[in-house]
Amino acid sequence: MSKAIITVVGKDTVGIIAKVCTYLAENQINILDISQTIVQGYFNMMMIVDVSKTEKTFGAIGGELEEIGDTLGVKVKCQREEIFTKMHRI
Question: How far is residue 13's CA from residue 56's CA, in Å, rounded to a whole number?
């Protein structure tokens, strides 16, 4: 299994979860765990996903998720699990 971490941060608006999750489903990316909060109008979501069954490259997935974020006015980042873990280990 190849895992990735997807984070979404920005001003809350209608459809953020729907657009991101629709993209993932259309690309055979399974959500393994998800957490989301809204604090004083700001949206924050973190997902752990399985990208082993998608046919797209990791770079394409990241770029397309960033484009979705741009249309929604939020920042979407997709990182490989091992890189995310090493970056946040201090």
Answer: 28
* 58 half-sphere exposure, CB direction, 13 A CA radius: 15
Phi, psi (degrees; rounded to nearest 5) at 37: -140, 160
Q: What is the dihedral of CA 51, 56, 59, 64, to 10 degrees?
A: -100
pTM for this entry = 0.89
Average pLDDT, integer, range 30-51? 97
Indicate the pLDDT class of residue 53, thresholds 50, 70 and 90: very high
| DSSP per-residue string spanning 5-69 | EEEEEEE--TTHHHHHHHHHHHTT-EEEEEEEEEETTEEEEEEEEE-TT-SS-HHHHHHHHHHHH
DSSP-derived letter for residue 88 is T
pLDDT tens column, 6-33:
999 999 999 999 999 999 999 999 999 9
